[in-house]
């Protein structure tokens, strides 16, 4: 648990979590062109160099690269189920965002203010924007059935949550 908590702080700092995110315009669930500029291709697992590059960007060295690789797989890849990682990442993100907002917002912020801000910061759209800024769309591993499709916000947001 401490490992996930520490990683969440590193990732959130790297994403500049408390800065406003731009609004995506596609209500169908697909990432806007600004988020997903290219269709995904069925691809191999991330190389050691790609993993090292992501670790450099995050400022965090993964001790379990298998879990990191699993986090980058879309369920269409078929090899591993990473839904549990997404569930855990969602919980960690909510906890860390709550803590950061509690300490960073003015003391006169109401619980309603805190709640609304947390909802905005952990939304699918906000997570998808941050995943794209981190380049996770380039590391997304999908099966052949998704080849040529533009990643959806759900796909990008899921990768971020699974990474946490």
TrEMBL record:
**Origin superkingdom:** Eukaryota
Which CDD domains does this one have? RIBOc
Q: Which GO terms describe its molecular function?
A: ribonuclease III activity
Going by the UniProt record, its keywords in alphabetical order are: Hydrolase, Signal
Leader sequence segment: 1-24
Residues in RNase III domain copies: 51-164
**Listed Pfam families:** Ribonuclease_3
Q: Which GO terms describe its biological process?
A: RNA processing
Question: Which PANTHER family does the record match to this protein?
Answer: DICER-RELATED (PTHR14950)
Indicate what this protein is called per its UniProt record: RNase III domain-containing protein
**Annotated source species:** Chlorella vulgaris (Green alga)
